Amino acid sequence: MEGLSLYDRIGGEETLRLLTDRFYDHVFAHELISRLFKSNKDEIKEKQRLFLTQFLGGPALYSEVFGHPRLRARHIPHTITEEDAIAWLTCMDRAISALTISDELKKELFGRFPQSALFMVNS
Ligand code: HEM
């Protein structure tokens, strides 16, 4: 599988649909961070699926629709603490754990998030 993107190796679109579905179920139920999510759950799931597709090396679906991600700037309107980032990562870890991919791939996939999550901390 050398040369294939992480997006392809985890199973592409089907896996990302499952992942974003479960991830936001955890986020919207989370006692600390659910307060931050005010828009429609299906819309944010879909935005995140488009974003993660390109973030993991698949086609640039998010940018085709929304332009440059500028993720830190897009998060500025939301007050995000380090504690929120850790909660976000915990939700992602749980969603990744439930996927039917190898433990090695789970580890590699989760490893893509901590740095970006801490980068969104703005309070
Ligand atoms: C550090 C913890 C994080 C918190 C608390 C957080 C919170 C939020 C919130 C509140 C929104 C707006 C949701 C809405 O419209 O209701 C959002 C949007 C978004 N977040 Fe995060 N986020 C975090 C980290 C991340 C990370 C690490 C990524 C990517 C790897 C990410 C990707 C996105 C994307 C793609 C959107 C949609 C942006 C748009 O087009 O409007 N977020 N996030």
Automatic annotation (TrEMBL):
Pfam family, one: Bac_globin
One term of GO molecular function: oxygen binding
UniProt cross-references to InterPro entries, sorted A to Z: GlbO/GLB3-like (IPR044203), Globin-like_sf (IPR009050), Globin/Proto (IPR012292), Hemoglobin_trunc (IPR001486)
Coiled-coil residue windows: none
Alphabetical UniProt keywords: Heme, Iron, Metal-binding, Transport
Signal peptide: none
Family: Belongs to the truncated hemoglobin family. Group II subfamily.
Annotated protein name in UniProt: Globin
Natural source organism: Dyadobacter frigoris
